[in-house]
Design goal:
Helices cover 25% and strands 35% of the residues. Strands 1, 2, 3, 4, 5, 6, 7, 8 and 9 form a nine-stranded mixed β-sheet that branches. The protein is globular and about 45 Å long. It starts with a strand and ends in an 11-residue tail after the last strand.
Amino acid sequence: MNFSGRSDRNNSEQPIETDSLQQLLKFLLSFAAEMLADAGSFLPFGAGVTADGELTATPSLAKLPAADPRTVLAAVFTDLRLQASSGSINAAGICTNVQMSLPGAPLPADAICLELEDRAGRAVEVFVPYTIGSGAPLRLGEAVITGGEPSIFVASAD
C-alpha cells in the first residue's frame, strides 16, 4: 500500500516512492499515534532501515536530563547520521510533534512531522495534523507531503 496525501505544491496525490520510506512512514506514524493516544504528546524519535529491510529504532532518549525536545532531536539526528555514515542503514526517518498552518484555519494545528530520506538522495516531509483531548479519541487528518532536503545522508564537509 502506498501512502499518499495532499502535496502543498499542487494539491495532487504524491506517493512516497520506495518500500524503505513507506516502511519508515508506517512505523513512525503508528508509534507517534500510539504515544499521542496514550500520553497526549511525544518526544522526537527516529528509525532507520538496513539493506536487509530491518527497522532499527533510535535508542530511547526520553530519559535524557530534562528531556528537552531540542536536545532529544539533536541526539536522534546524531545517532541516525552516524548509522548512515557507517553504512548500517539505507533509509532514515525522524518524527517530531509540531504545529502547522492549515488553509482556512485561524490558528496553527498540532501535527506529526515525519522527515524521511534514503541513501539515493530522496527526501520527503510528511505532516499529519491531529486533534486530541477532552476524552475524545485521537483523530488524524489528511497528510500533507512536501519535498524535503536530505540532512542525514549527506557527505561530510571535512
